[in-house]
Amino acid sequence: MPIFQLKKKRTHPRLQKSLLDKVSGGDKVLDEFDLQKFKISDKGIFRLIPAVRNCKKAIVAGVWIDNWIMETVVSALESPDSPLRELDLRNNSVTDPVLELLSRALLSPHCKLEALSISGEGHTSVGIASLASALKSLSPQLRELDLSLNILNDSLNGVIDAGLGSPKSKLEKLRLHKNTTTKHLCDVLSSGLNSNSSQLRDLDLSYSVVGDSGVESLSAGLKNPHCKLDTLRLYQCELTGKCCEALASAICSKESGLKELDLSNNDLRDYGVKLLSAGLMNPHCSLEKLGLSFCRVTEEGCMYLASAFKPKSSHLKELDLSYNHPGNAGAKVLSAIKEDSSCKLKKLNMEHNEECWVKLELLRKYACNITLDPNTAHRELLLDNRSVKRVTEEHPYPEHPERFLNNPVVMCEEGLTGRCYWEKSNS
């Protein structure tokens, strides 16, 4: 799909060389190197990528990662004096050979990488298996792992087993956004949480197809005394109010140490909130932050939540009920609880933002016309006034230093600031 971006100032080759000299020479280590900040050609990428050898955090996102680029990254990870601790490879096509090179680096005794993000397509179960092997074989320092958009459920099982079940694993944060999660994968996650060697504290499954049955599996893991999880994010996971019964049972368990739970953008409704509130009022519930934005909660649901604060034992400090339908009575009763000095609730979000979510026509006052810049268009994109069509044969656009060569992208000519609105349609 073509991507529309605002035009950024092209990084001149001399500036590229100057930056490379700055970050690759001397004793000064760069805190962060972000390749996305520079609008550069393929040649420019080759000039700048060696900078990963002299920074603490490297963001190499949105580019085609070939073996040469990954070999450069690997050389940084395998260097005995490498400062690299965080590597972000999101929004890339990471092939199996590239993933195998990365896994090799993780096995190096010199690798000190603590956070790794890989999202996108291009690899198969073979590449994921090599990553799982790296996590299990030695004792990597990896504490944060992001494998979003991989859509390889069965292959992910090995990574989860290695990351949560291996006694050598130090993994504390796992992010699996936009994966077509199955109940079986949730069973594997639950089993991992039950492992006495699991160090996982933060699990993010947002935008994945978890479903009620998946939540029931996860809830069983939350009740295990070995589970150390304190943050669970299930934003937009195709849940209904039915799953709240299992969650309520989990959060009021003596063994559960869950502090933060995000259930936003799910079809929980008042029924789900009623079930959840029963768990919130239990004195064993340690939950401090709850997200229920976009859950179709009405005044009735607000009254159930209010009842959870009556025993004065609730630990809840933050409650997000934005973009629901609390009505005047619901908003009033919860606001009164927030003002009660004997209540721990300190942050209550009931923003409705009618302009954006109820009367979309009001947004059109921010409408702006965008002119597509043919000098930036990828050769597989055909421009016709304000329409863009992707074709298989390359269009003979003239050579231009700002033309996108790897990704099907076209930019607009205008520089936009403030609040802007436009619409697009697919055909």
UniProtKB/TrEMBL annotation:
<feature type="domain" description="SPRY-associated">
    <location>
        <begin position="367"/>
        <end position="417"/>
    </location>
</feature>
<keyword id="KW-0433">Leucine-rich repeat</keyword>
<dbReference type="InterPro" id="IPR006574">
    <property type="entry name" value="PRY"/>
</dbReference>
<dbReference type="InterPro" id="IPR051261">
    <property type="entry name" value="NLR"/>
</dbReference>
<keyword id="KW-0677">Repeat</keyword>
<dbReference type="InterPro" id="IPR032675">
    <property type="entry name" value="LRR_dom_sf"/>
</dbReference>
<dbReference type="InterPro" id="IPR043136">
    <property type="entry name" value="B30.2/SPRY_sf"/>
</dbReference>
<dbReference type="Pfam" id="PF13516">
    <property type="entry name" value="LRR_6"/>
</dbReference>
<dbReference type="Pfam" id="PF13765">
    <property type="entry name" value="PRY"/>
</dbReference>
<dbReference type="InterPro" id="IPR001611">
    <property type="entry name" value="Leu-rich_rpt"/>
</dbReference>
<protein>
    <recommendedName>
        <fullName>SPRY-associated domain-containing protein</fullName>
    </recommendedName>
</protein>
